[in-house]
Amino acid sequence: MLDLLDYRRRVSELYATVRQANGDQAAWQTWRQVRDDLFQNHPQSALDDTQRQTFEGLPYFDYDAAFRVVVPVDYAVESFTHQGEIGADGHLAYTRFAQVTFTVPTGTGTLSLFWINGYGGGVFIPFRDATNSTTTYGAGRYLYDTIKGADLGASSDEIILDFNYAYHPSCAYHPRWVCPLAPPENRLSIPIPVGERLTAESASDTITR
Fold first, then answer.
1. Is residue 39 in some structural domain?
2. 21 domain-assigned
3. What whole-number distance in Å separates Cα of residue 199 and Cα of residue 37?
4. CB 5: neighbour CB atoms within 10 A?
5. Structural domain count of the chain
6. Among the residues of the chain, which ranges form H helices?
7. Is the pTM of this model over 0.85?
8. pLDDT above 60 for 128
9. Which residues contact residue 102 at a Cβ distance below 8 angstroms, ignoring those fewer than 6 apart?
10. Containing domain of residue 183, as a range?
11. Which residue, 18, 37, 49, 106, is most buried by CB atoms nearer than 10 A?
12. Residue 9 resides in a domain
């Protein structure tokens, strides 16, 4: 359990650095380097021991500042709770509490913001887009998971969506993980060609859910 505490602390500290950098590409490079170190060396890595022996770093699209936007939060949405089982972690419920509409070079999209129910709670933003099953994991990626420390920054009325920091859930790396996935309302019709991606070799093996 202390390994998990250490992992989450390191991730939280990393995202604090990202927020302070306010869109600086150098912070994104640091984010990549720290994530590679965690995947390679930490006991709570999403990879198993065999995978870590051949790990050479997570692949990413090129950084593009145009995919970082600060958008107003719309709270005038109907509340709805999604329920699911996540393996050894038990039952998960997360409730829609707001929506955001954003525009990036590939088009305009809308995402729901979810609050993870339970002690302490947390903001959760999973999404799918038109790159899934080709250059990104078929089940989608995450942008926010504040329980795990993934927090790009928000105020009471605005939130930062920096898709350069989109990352694959743990279930993209090994079948022992069970992850909550993006509901239909967070499936974008546009491509988001930034953030973590698949290697060319793994693209054909992507699971679509």
1. no
2. no
3. 18
4. 10
5. 1
6. 2-21, 25-41, 49-53
7. yes
8. yes
9. 69, 71, 108, 109, 110, 111, 161
10. 63-205
11. 18
12. no
